[in-house]
Amino acid sequence: PTILRSDYRPLAWRVESVELDFRLDAEQTLVTSRLACVRVPGASGPLPLDGEDLELVSLRIDGAEAGECMRRTERGLEVTPGSDTATIEIVTRVNPAANTTLSGLYASKGGLFTQCEAEGFRRITYFPDRPDVMARYTVRLEAEQASFPVLLSNGNLVDSGELPGDRHYAVWEDPFPKPSYLFALVAADLEAMERSVETLSGREVLLQVWVEPGNLDRAGHAMDSLVNALRWDEETFGLELDLDRFMIVVVADFNMGAMENKGLNIFNARFVLARPDTATDADFEGIESVVAHEYFHNWTGNRVTCRDWFQLTLKEGLTVFRDQQFSADMLARAAGAEREASARAVKRIDDFRGLRAAQFTEDSGPMAHPIRPDSYQEINNFYTATVYEKGAAVIRMQHTLLGAEGFRKGMNLYFERHDGQAVTCDDFVAAMADANDRDMTQFMRWYSQAGTPVVRASGQWDADARRYTLTLAQHTPPTPGQPEKLPLVIPVAVGLIGPDGNDLPLRLEGDSAAGATTRVLELVEAEQHFVFEDVDAEPVPSLLRGFSAPVLLEIDESDARLAFRMAHDADPCNRWDAAQRYAERVILALAAKADADVPEAFLDAWGALLADESLDPAFVALAATLPGEGWLLERMRPADPAPLRAALMRVMRAIGERFADQWLGLYQRLEVRGPYRYHPADAGCRALRNLALRYLAAAGNEDGLNRAETQFEYAENMTEQFGGLAALVHSASPVAEDALDNFHTRFSSDALVLDKWFALQAGAWRWDEAAPPVLERVKALMDDPAFKLTNPNKVYSLLGAFFRGNPAEFHAADGSGHAFWAEQIIALDAMNPQVASRMARSLENWRRYTPALQTSIRTQLERVRDADGLSPDVAEVVGKALVG
Ligand code: ARG
Ligand code: ZN
C-alpha cells in the first residue's frame, strides 16, 4: 500500500508515559508495557496500536480485560477506552533469536540488541509507532546474569541489583520525552571504555564506548571522536549534552551504519573499532564522522524530531550537514593554518563526489524523489542518498545564502520554538527565514522537486565595453510523477580567471568598487544575465566553486580550457572538477573507439598535476583518481560496461607507463616515517602513494609491483598493507593470489578486516584476460567459513562490491551476473528485507544499458517481482524499476 504525505492526521490520543518491563531471553522474551494514555481534548476515535510479528499474551485497560474495547486490525490492534484517560497494559512475547530482520529486538553473537528506526518498535510491543507520539520512558530489564552481564537502556541508571536464580535487573529512566524509534536496549557481555568530561555549563558527564571483551584497544578513536564532537557542538551551536551519561555500543550485525537512540547509540562495529593495524585512514575518517553524526542527532533529531517519516530529511539532511562541517573543521585544525583551505577542499570534494555517484544517479532513475518525498510504500527504502546527501546540500545552500551567522541565528530560533516537539521541514525553513528576515518561499521548492537541476552557462566578453556577461539558465528534467518543474533558488559561487591564471577582483554591474574574487550569484529565474565590469581580457569562468549547489553544470569548454583550469583554478574543487571533466571526455571517447590512443594533451595535463609540488598530496590523490565507473556509466548512452572497462584500463595503463618515474619519485618522496597516527597530512601521503602503486601496477611496472609487494609484507598499518594488496590485485601479477591467501590467514578471525578482503576480490578487474570471470570467485567466496548471508557487512562487502562496484563483471554478456543477482535477492529477502532491498537497488537504472543487457535484466527483475512472499521493501524497488 502507498502511504501519502498528504494523509497525515494527528493522533486522537497522547501517550504520557511508557513503562516497559523486559524478561529477556534469547528465544522467549516477555515484554510488559504500561501506557498512560490521554485523549487529546476535542478529539474522538480509537487508539491504533501498531504491531508486527508479536505474540499477544494479554491486554488490559485500567486493570480489566480489554474484551470489546479491543479489536485486531491489519496493522495491529485498535483500542477504545471508555474514558478520556486510560492505562493500557500489554504483554507480548517475542523471539529475538529467530529475528533475522535485525529490526526490533534481535540476537547478535549471544547478546540482545534493538533497532527501532523507522518502524521496529512495533516488533517489540504494540504501540502507536509514529514519531509524533513522544513519551517519557522507564525501562526495567531482567535477565540471566551469566549470559547477559550488562543491561543498558536509554537515559540514567536509577536502580540495579541481583535476583535469586543467578538473575539480575537494571532500571533505566529517560528524563526526555521521545518517540518510540529512539528506544533502545542492550543485554550482552561487553566491556566499556570510559571517560568523564565537563560540559559547557560545568556538568560532569560520563562517556562510555561498549565493546566485546578483548576489543578495548580498538575503542580509543571512537571515544576521541565523541569528545571532539561534543566540544564542537558546544562551540559551533551552543548545544550541550543533556544527559548524565552517553553510551555507544558496538554490534556486529547491523543493517545500517549506526543509530542515535537517546543516550544509547548503537553502532555497526565498522564505525567504532579501529587500531592502526586493522583499520585504514578511510576507516578512521568514517568513524569520526559517524560518531559525530549520531551524537549531533541528540539535538537535531532527538530533542527536535520529525512529525512524520516524510520529514526524514529534517533530521538527516541537517545532521549530515553538521557532520560534514565538523569533519572539515577537524581536518582544518589538524592541517594547520597554511594547509587549512586545502584540507577543507579535500573534504568538500570527497562529499561532492559521493553525492554525484549516489544521489545524481538515484535522481535520474525510477526511485527519484524529492528530499521530502510525497509518497512511499516502505519507509526503509527512503533512507536514501537523496534524503541524506542532497538533504545536506539543501541545508548547505541555506548556510551559504544566509551566512554562518545568519544560519546560527536560524538554528537558535529553531530550538527556541521547537525544543521537545515533532515538527516539519517547513518549520525548519521558517525559523531560518524569520531569524534572517528573508522570504524563503521559492527556496522551499528544493524540498518538493525531485531530479538534478541542470545549470547551463555561457559567457560573452565585450572587449570595447570591457564587460563580461555570464548567462545562467536552469532546468530540471522530469522525474516519475513530476513532469513539470519550476525554477529553483540556486547559489552559484563564481570566479573569473584571467589569462595569467590569476583570479580577477569582481565588480558586478551596479557595484561601486571591485571586491572579492569569488561571489555568490543567486540564480532564481529560468535564465539570468550577470554583468561583470572592468574585464580587460577574456576570462575563464569558474562556476559553482566549492560545489555551491547540488546541480549539474553544462558549459562548453575546449580541452585546452579544461587543462588551463586544471592548472590554475584558484578553487581546488573546480580544479578537481576540471580534471574529472577532461578524464570523462577522454574515457568515453575511448570507450566508443576501441583502437584510439589516449590523447597526448590529456596526458600532459595529468603530468602537470603530478609535477606540481605545491599541491597537497591528499588533493593530488583525489584529482589524479579517474571518475568512478558508476558515474561514467551514468554519462554513457547507452551504458555499456565492457568497453568502458576496457577504456579505463587503457587510460590507467597509459598514465602508469607515461609517468612511471614521477609515480616512483612521489612514492619515495612521500614516505611517512614514524609510528602511525591518524592525521590528514600523513593520510594524504599514504593515499597518493597507494594511488601511485595502483597506476604502476596497472601498467605492469616491475619496480612498482615490487614496491607493492614489499609494502604489503612489511607495512605496520592497514592503510599501507591493504594499499599494497589492492595494487597487486589491480594487476596481472601472479603474486596477487599468494598475497590474498596470506592476508586471509593473517586476519582469519577479524571480521572487519575480512570484509575488506571480500570487497577487494568482488570488485577486482580482470587485468589478466585469461583469468576466470569474477562471478566464479564471488560464488566461491560465499562458501568461505567467514561469509554469512545473515551478516549485513558481509553482504555489502561481497555482493555489494560486485553488484555496485564491478559493472563490467556483473553485467557479463551471458546474463550470469543478473541471474545470480536474482537468486541472492530472493534468498536475502526471506531473511532480511532491508538488506535485500538495498542490494536490489543495484539494478534500478537498468534502462540506460544496451538493449541486450536490458533484456537480460528485465527477465531477472520479473523473476524477483514474481517470487513468493516478496517483502514490501523489495516489491517497491523492483516494481518501480519495472514501471520506469
Ligand atoms: N538514523 C540513523 C542514522 O542516520 C539511520 C537509521 C536507519 N534505519 C533504517 N531502518 N533505515 O544514522
Ligand atoms: Zn542520521
Automatic annotation (TrEMBL):
<dbReference type="GO" id="GO:0008237">
    <property type="term" value="F:metallopeptidase activity"/>
</dbReference>
<feature type="domain" description="Aminopeptidase N-like N-terminal">
    <location>
        <begin position="81"/>
        <end position="182"/>
    </location>
</feature>
<dbReference type="InterPro" id="IPR038438">
    <property type="entry name" value="PepN_Ig-like_sf"/>
</dbReference>
<dbReference type="Pfam" id="PF17900">
    <property type="entry name" value="Peptidase_M1_N"/>
</dbReference>
<protein>
    <recommendedName>
        <fullName>Aminopeptidase N</fullName>
        <ecNumber>3.4.11.2</ecNumber>
    </recommendedName>
</protein>
<keyword id="KW-0479">Metal-binding</keyword>
<dbReference type="Pfam" id="PF11940">
    <property type="entry name" value="DUF3458"/>
</dbReference>
<keyword id="KW-0031">Aminopeptidase</keyword>
<dbReference type="InterPro" id="IPR027268">
    <property type="entry name" value="Peptidase_M4/M1_CTD_sf"/>
</dbReference>
<feature type="domain" description="Peptidase M1 alanyl aminopeptidase C-terminal">
    <location>
        <begin position="559"/>
        <end position="882"/>
    </location>
</feature>
<keyword id="KW-0862">Zinc</keyword>
<dbReference type="InterPro" id="IPR042097">
    <property type="entry name" value="Aminopeptidase_N-like_N_sf"/>
</dbReference>
<dbReference type="GO" id="GO:0006508">
    <property type="term" value="P:proteolysis"/>
</dbReference>
<comment type="similarity">
    <text>Belongs to the peptidase M1 family.</text>
</comment>
<dbReference type="GO" id="GO:0016285">
    <property type="term" value="F:alanyl aminopeptidase activity"/>
</dbReference>
<keyword id="KW-0482">Metalloprotease</keyword>
<keyword id="KW-0645">Protease</keyword>
<dbReference type="GO" id="GO:0008270">
    <property type="term" value="F:zinc ion binding"/>
</dbReference>
<dbReference type="InterPro" id="IPR014782">
    <property type="entry name" value="Peptidase_M1_dom"/>
</dbReference>
<dbReference type="InterPro" id="IPR001930">
    <property type="entry name" value="Peptidase_M1"/>
</dbReference>
<dbReference type="Pfam" id="PF01433">
    <property type="entry name" value="Peptidase_M1"/>
</dbReference>
<dbReference type="InterPro" id="IPR045357">
    <property type="entry name" value="Aminopeptidase_N-like_N"/>
</dbReference>
<keyword id="KW-0378">Hydrolase</keyword>
<dbReference type="Pfam" id="PF17432">
    <property type="entry name" value="DUF3458_C"/>
</dbReference>
<dbReference type="InterPro" id="IPR037144">
    <property type="entry name" value="Peptidase_M1_pepN_C_sf"/>
</dbReference>
<dbReference type="InterPro" id="IPR012779">
    <property type="entry name" value="Peptidase_M1_pepN"/>
</dbReference>
<feature type="domain" description="Peptidase M1 membrane alanine aminopeptidase">
    <location>
        <begin position="222"/>
        <end position="446"/>
    </location>
</feature>
<dbReference type="InterPro" id="IPR035414">
    <property type="entry name" value="Peptidase_M1_pepN_Ig-like"/>
</dbReference>
<dbReference type="InterPro" id="IPR024601">
    <property type="entry name" value="Peptidase_M1_pepN_C"/>
</dbReference>
<feature type="domain" description="Peptidase M1 alanyl aminopeptidase Ig-like fold">
    <location>
        <begin position="451"/>
        <end position="555"/>
    </location>
</feature>
